[in-house]
Automatic annotation (TrEMBL):
Name of the protein: Glycosyltransferase RgtA/B/C/D-like domain-containing protein
Residue intervals passing through the bilayer: 14-32, 78-108, 120-139, 145-163, 172-189, 195-215, 227-245, 577-596, 616-636, 648-671
Organism: Laedolimicola intestinihominis
Keywords on record: Membrane, Transmembrane, Transmembrane helix
Organism lineage: Bacteria, Bacillati, Bacillota, Clostridia, Lachnospirales
Superkingdom of this protein's organism: Bacteria
The keyword rRNA-binding is annotated on this UniProt entry: no
């Protein structure tokens, strides 16, 4: 203890920072080389994210325009594309960025926490947050893996600005940048980012109000400058939206960022939700009879009816119940998007937008004329209309969500995480875009892809995989590769036929381990022979070049996973510690918050001045975190009772750091206050 007291402030800062780095490196080591969860069959979620990332990486914006293209935010695909361009691991970088976001949040709250011990405590409970290494919110290649990073950047950046509102502008610029990065990336990652908007609105009003009070007292121009600067993160969100909308207009002839939020489809769907169904089916607003009546009253929608029926059958998933199957509100909008695609309207954004607006107008006219009965709808287009009895159900679901999050239910880290391949070989695309490996079900599978070019020409060239004894495992089919031909030409290499030199091979190898060779022939005469392994990426000679984008040996991977199984044991052990103490931590945080509020209120009633503004800052910080947590859980709970099974930790991933921060800060603030009173 004396050692610490004798250290200079500078050395304490260095020691504190290095302590955070040390724990961050430890976590980075534990998540390194974990397998990804690849879901190529999830075309509406995981697959479209990776597909758009691949398109961005190839300079094709978000890829071909169809009913999937503008349904998700584009930032996560952009994030994957950047990592792929830099040849970085998706899992490693995501873990690193979360560690950095925890550091940023802790430094943001330093003016209130003050003590190094308190700061390190908050950092550690945030760092080992189980959602940040769980299978569905970390190992899965989907946008939920960055939500908890973005949330800490938003809250950390804005709370830091509040706590430093009296400091010079130059000391606030980095926090402004932090908030801007968090807000821009968050709002263009998810469509349900609305849950942070109440916090943002209240923050701006309180911040500007406080600056106005200070300006009236001091009449200093610096407060005017700060009032303008605080709007920059919000202007950044608007500016980014304009740029995305312009790119979408350039490529797809529709000027918006997301078709589920704005535009013709959103307007059409809102009008559809406003039509009252005759049947009362829980969780189903678009009943079959309602859709039939809408088609009868709307000529444009009538043209889509055959496609709506076939799309509904697809979502039914089984011929046994498709005649009676009703689609719940959480998925039913896909039926109409698929119908528009099958009807051929997704030629460009302008065409489908016009058709959707025409259907909207016909529906509104039918409701105005009384041919269809109108019902009240919710503010959000995709929320089911309120029904009698929902209030009790909502409170029940909210209680379930609170219990679910505070106990970290269902979370785990999987080392033996098996991904099921689809018929199109989608897993290699996931691996290529992430720089991480998946684990395939087939125990004897070997997969590779890349390109081979003979500089003397590709005429008569064949490429095949063989064992050492000459057994042929498979022959490659060369596919289009204009980009390779352009690349070689740029290197001054004339390679006739290199416009078709890309290949992929999927092999079944019995009795592993065996060495596999890739051999090229010209009209039966051997040209090149390569011994394959995970270390082989590119081999070039004066006459040819082999470039492997990936080489994936499943049997060898299984052996490797056995060696790192201890990582899963450690991480799941930490997760279990959170699971068993979560309810206690939540109760302690709630109790500490109530005690702090009571003590602050007593001081106000006794007219004790809050000279340094600490009481206000503590209350605002905790209240902002708690309110945002409940807003998110409230929205998820409403979805749970009305549309789809929503109480799942990957959908709630952004709530966990907020909840942990609230619990940790409330307890730490109360301890500090009690210690301060004891000293007095």
């Amino acid at each position: 203890m004396n050692f610490w007291k004798n250290l200079s402030t500078r050395r304490k800062e260095v020691f504190f920072f290095l302590s955070m780095v040390l724990f961050g490196v430890l976590k980075e080591f534990l998540v390194y080389n974990l397998p990804i969860m690849a879901v190529p069959k999830g075309i509406h979620d995981d697959w479209i994210m990776v597909h758009m990332a691949d398109a961005l990486r190839g300079g094709r914006w978000l890829g071909e325009y169809n009913d999937l293209t503008l349904t998700k935010g584009m930032f996560f695909p952009f994030y994957l594309a950047v990592l792929n361009f830099l040849h970085l691991s998706y899992l490693s970088v995501s873990a690193f960025l979360y560690t950095v976001s925890c550091m940023i949040f802790v430094y943001a709250l330093r003016p209130l926490l003050k003590k190094y011990r308190a700061c390190l405590t908050l950092y550690l409970v945030l760092l080992w947050n189980p959602v940040s290494y769980s299978v569905q919110a970390f190992q899965r290649v989907y946008r939920n893996s960055i939500s908890y990073i973005q949330v800490l950047l938003i809250f950390g950046g804005l709370l830091a600005l509040w706590l430093r509102r009296k400091e010079p502008v130059k000391k606030q610029l980095l926090w402004l940048l932090t908030a801007a990065i968090g807000m821009v990336t968050f709002f263009y990652t998810r469509e349900d980012a609305i849950w942070v908007e109440p916090f943002l609105i209240v923050f701006v009003l309180v911040y500007l109000g406080n600056l106005f009070v200070l300006w009236r007292k001091e009449h200093a121009k610096v407060y005017v400058a700060k009032a303008v600067l605080i709007l920059l993160p919000f202007l950044s969100v608007w500016g980014a939206g304009q740029l995305i909308a312009q790119e979408n207009y350039t490529h797809y002839n529709i000027s918006l960022t997301n078709e589920l939020q704005k535009g013709g489809f959103a307007e059409m769907y809102k009008s559809m939700m406003a039509v009252k169904p005759e049947e009362d089916i829980p969780g189903v607003t678009m009943t079959r009879e309602k859709v039939a009546r809408m088609c009868d009253e709307c000529p444009t929608l009538k043209k889509l009816e055959p496609y709506i029926q076939s799309s509904r059958i697809y979502w039914a998933g089984s011929e046994e119940n498709e005649k009676d199957w009703e689609v719940r509100d959480g998925w039913v909008f896909w039926i109409f998007r698929t119908a528009l695609e099958q009807a051929g309207y997704y030629t460009d954004g302008g065409t489908v937008n016009q058709v959707c607006l025409q259907i909207r107008n016909e529906l509104e006219t039918a409701m105005d004329e009384g041919r269809l009965e109108r019902q009240a709808t919710m503010p959000s287009t995709y929320m089911s209309p309120w029904r009698k009895g929902y209030l009790g159900d909502l409170f029940g679901a909210l209680g379930k969500a609170i219990a679910y999050t505070t106990t970290y239910d269902e979370m785990e880290t999987l080392v033996y995480l098996y991904s099921e391949p689809d018929d199109n070989g989608g897993i290699p695309l996931f691996e290529r875009m992430t720089g991480d490996k998946a684990v395939w079900y087939e125990s004897n599978l070997v997969e590779m892809a890349g390109w081979y070019a003979s500089y003397e020409g590709m005429d008569g060239v064949t490429l095949q995989a063989e064992l050492a004894d000459g057994t042929v495992l498979g022959a490659a089919d060369f596919t289009e590769s204009d980009d390779i031909a352009s690349y070689l030409a740029g290197q001054g290499i004339a390679a006739p036929g290199s416009e078709k030199c890309r290949f992929s091979l999927k092999l079944s190898v019995e009795d592993k381990p065996q060495t596999i060779y890739l051999k090229s022939y010209r009209n039966g005469a051997l040209l090149d022979s390569y011994e394959l392994s995970d270390d082989v990426t590119r081999i070039e000679s004066d006459t040819s070049c082999l470039n492997l984008d990936w080489y994936w040996d499943v049997p060898e991977r299984h052996g490797f996973l056995a060696k790192i199984n201890y990582k899963g044991i450690i991480l799941n052990g930490v997760c279990q510690a959170y699971h068993y103490t979560g309810a206690i931590a939540a109760a302690a945080g709630a109790m500490a918050y109530l005690v702090l509020c009571v003590r602050m209120l007593k001081r106000r009633l006794k007219k004790v001045k809050d000279a340094d503004g600490r009481d206000l800052s503590v209350w605002l910080t905790l209240s902002a975190l708690l309110a945002s947590y409940f807003v998110l859980l409230g929205g998820i709970s409403y979805s749970e009772i009305s549309g789809w099974n929503a109480i799942l930790y990957w959908y709630l991933s952004g709530a966990y750091p907020i909840m942990i921060a609230f619990e940790g800060l409330a307890v730490l603030f109360l301890v500090q206050e009690l210690r301060g009173k004891a000293k007095q």
